[in-house]
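Translate structure to sequence.
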């Protein structure tokens, strides 16, 4: 019998499959890993198709070397998800397929390392740790504090202090620690009586467990969303099916994991987080794939996990930016979760205190079913939000007098303070402090960016340019300026004002480094730190019961950012950050410094009114035909010189088929022009019709792949989350 052709996905930046002589492989092997020769090496690929013929002449075809028969092939629905992903994001299927596998499977042979051990405090440990430790043993206390918030694995604990493994062994010898199995806690949680709104949410989802039904669960922090998730997971497990819970990167905390584990002490759970070793990840992934794990809890990449009995998908904090991958394959795990639910005919719940406007609009339009939890489940009071008008109370080095005073009082009471600095790379815009005018683009609903050196205002969306006006066009004020002040010195200033305070800094870098975010949380829990500077959101799931004051500096840059999503993000951040302040027994306070106290965003924020805010934003979006009322894609290019990037984009634009329903703007420099030594430019596409935009991209992308440029790197971003 003649050999069939094996069509294999390889991790190569080309949007195609590679043909090999099938070597006995059949349709039943689709989804298996295969080893194939490629160039001079042997590669790991994924068998995606079996064909009778190939475009390649038979004498040129090499045979597949080997197929992995120790593992079941990837299931059809996962393969379909990968294919959808490739076609929707116009990204090479092989790169998606290999990225979706655990890294251990990207190599042919993987030597599984020694199994990880999970430690928990024993009952005598509960008394001895951390109080039995010398006050100066900071690292040890941190380790103990982490363990007292729940069991933890060696890999995570090793990140907390240098000699962790020695200490753990010592403490185990002393009987303070015990080794525990799985994620499960010993204690079974008692269930609270559901509030009527929670009950109604559970009933609505529960009545549609066997069909595709997308739900948007809206409720402030503490309104009982997680409780609703857990009840529904319980129902789904009872029908013999698996549940997939996706959480933001920073939301996958030991406390959250522990809460899920405590609710289902007899259920095998696979937790997939970035701190796992390759072996651990592989093992947990396999348990999900072979059906042994009944709950999978993970970050965005987990959306690709094979789950034979999948019955429910939950996306917690669905608005969170970490669900959008910004490098390599740019995808939205939230959108893929909805795709997957539709494909599997199951419900999906998107939950948030501040849903994305995309999801909110889907609910308004009746495509999603809105479930609302209107109040805090524990009856705890909402934090008291106040604005500090920085036109009256001029901040020095970023800090106003009322803010300093309140920080001092809070620290003096022995409570913790979070100073939140919103410092994302906002490009400067021109504004008038007298009437709050901000230079708009006359051609699109973007704002103009200030380029001081060239004395020009420029639109990074459509390419429009103009001179800097001599005075405010709205009120005639000659004193117009750039918005957004440096916050570099805030940290030093705080250190000077509060020399006694123990400061820690939770910024993006710190939270990215492996283990350091856990360390920091443990420090805050243990009370080692009382003044926390956050440039990165201290997100959901971190219950710092002693944190009673949040001070927000520098929110104004986001109010007038040229990114039309900046206000949406700011609102979400402020709501979330406010949710950090105060717990049941200690009321919280939030101070926001702003030069624009009359901005409508604050009126909604102070009233804790997300719906009002969303309504207003959606009106603006609709007028400007911005997402979710239109669909966008952006072709980004980078090169040593901006001119090369722009030239390539112009050439690319000329290759685009013309479609009346899709607007293709002029190539422009990116708002953040230079990054990592390269100069960046971009070309925006926009259409009211997703189908038309996709049709254009389908015709256009192969043309670009045919002519790889030499001095330019490029990629396409579909539904871009950022400008
Ligand atoms: P969210 O996920 O919206 O932040 P949670 O589900 O975590 O809210 O609930 C917040 C707190 O209220 C938790 O401590 C939870 O145990 C508690 N809680 C939730 N639902 C109820 C309820 N029906 N009765 C009493 N307490 C509840
Ligand atoms: Zn414009
Ligand atoms: Zn003015």
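Result:
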């Amino acid at each position: 019998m003649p050999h069939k052709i094996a069509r294999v996905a390889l991790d190569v930046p080309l949007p195609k499959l590679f043909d090999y002589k099938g070597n006995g492989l059949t349709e039943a092997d689709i989804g298996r890993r295969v080893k194939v020769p490629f160039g001079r090496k042997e590669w790991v690929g994924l068998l995606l198709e079996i064909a009778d013929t190939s475009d390649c002449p038979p004498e040129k075809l090499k045979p597949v070397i080997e197929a992995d028969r120790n593992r079941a092939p990837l299931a059809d629905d996962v393969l379909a998800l990968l294919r959808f992903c490739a076609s929707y994001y116009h990204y090479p299927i092989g790169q998606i397929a290999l990225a979706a596998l655990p890294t251990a499977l990207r190599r042919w042979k993987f030597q599984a390392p020694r199994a990880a051990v999970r430690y928990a405090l024993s009952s005598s440990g509960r008394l001895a740790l951390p109080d039995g430790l010398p006050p100066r043993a900071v690292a040890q206390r941190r380790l103990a504090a982490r363990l007292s918030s729940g069991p933890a694995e060696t890999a995570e604990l090793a990140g907390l202090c240098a000699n962790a493994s020695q200490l753990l062994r010592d403490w185990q010898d002393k009987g303070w620690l015990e080794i525990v199995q799985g994620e499960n806690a010993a204690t079974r949680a008692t269930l609270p009586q559901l509030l009527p709104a929670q009950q109604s949410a559970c009933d609505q989802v529960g009545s549609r467990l066997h069909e595709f039904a997308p739900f948007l669960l809206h409720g402030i922090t503490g309104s009982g969303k997680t409780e609703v998730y857990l009840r529904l997971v319980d129902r789904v497990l009872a029908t013999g099916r698996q549940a997939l819970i996706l959480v933001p990167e920073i939301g996958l905390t030991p406390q959250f994991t522990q809460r899920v584990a405590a609710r289902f002490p007899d259920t095998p759970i696979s937790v997939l987080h970035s701190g796992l070793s390759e072996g651990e990840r592989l093992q947990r992934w396999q348990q999900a794939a072979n059906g042994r794990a009944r709950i999978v809890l993970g970050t965005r990449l987990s959306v690709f996990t094979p789950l034979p009995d999948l019955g429910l998908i939950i996306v917690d904090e669905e608005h969170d930016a970490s669900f959008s991958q910004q490098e390599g394959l740019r995808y939205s795990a939230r959108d893929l979760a909805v795709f997957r639910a539709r494909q599997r005919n199951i419900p999906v719940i998107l939950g948030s205190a501040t849903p994305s406007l995309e999801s909110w609009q889907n609910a308004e339009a009746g495509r999603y079913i809105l479930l609302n939890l209107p109040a805090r489940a524990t009856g705890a009071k909402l934090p008291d939000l106040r604005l500090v008008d920085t036109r009256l109370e001029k901040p020095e080095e970023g800090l106003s007098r009322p803010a300093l005073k309140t920080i001092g009082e809070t620290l003096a009471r022995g409570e913790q303070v979070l100073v939140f600095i919103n410092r994302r790379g906002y490009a400067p815009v021109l504004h008038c402090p007298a009437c709050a005018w901000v230079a708009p683009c006359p051609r699109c609903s973007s704002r103009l960016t200030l380029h001081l050196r060239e004395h020009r205002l420029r639109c990074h969306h459509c390419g429009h340019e103009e001179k800097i006006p001599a005075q405010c066009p709205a009120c005639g004020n000659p004193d117009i300026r750039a918005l957004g002040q440096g916050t570099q010195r805030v940290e030093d200033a705080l250190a000077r004002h509060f020399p006694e305070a123990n400061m820690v800094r939770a910024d993006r870098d710190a939270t990215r480094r492996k283990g350091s975010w856990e360390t920091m949380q443990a420090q805050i829990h243990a009370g080692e730190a009382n003044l926390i500077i956050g440039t990165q959101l201290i997100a959901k799931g971190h219950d710092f019961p002693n944190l009673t004051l949040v001070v927000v500096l520098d929110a104004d840059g986001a109010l007038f950012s040229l990114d039309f999503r900046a206000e949406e993000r700011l609102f979400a951040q402020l709501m979330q950050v406010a949710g950090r302040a105060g717990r049941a027994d200690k009321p919280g306070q939030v101070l926001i410094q702003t030069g624009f106290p009359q901005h409508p965003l604050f009126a909604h924020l102070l009233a804790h009114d997300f719906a009002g805010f969303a309504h207003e934003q959606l009106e603006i979006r609709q007028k400007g035909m911005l997402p979710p009322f239109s669909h966008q894609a952006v072709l980004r290019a980078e090169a040593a010189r901006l001119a090369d990037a722009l030239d390539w984009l112009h050439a690319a634009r000329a290759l685009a088929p013309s479609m009346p329903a899709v607007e293709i703007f002029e190539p422009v420099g990116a708002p953040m022009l230079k990054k990592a030594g390269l100069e960046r430019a971009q070309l925006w596409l926009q259409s009211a019709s997703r189908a038309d935009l996709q049709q254009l991209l389908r015709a256009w992308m192969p043309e670009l792949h045919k002519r790889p440029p030499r001095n330019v790197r490029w990629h396409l971003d579909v539904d871009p989350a950022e400008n």
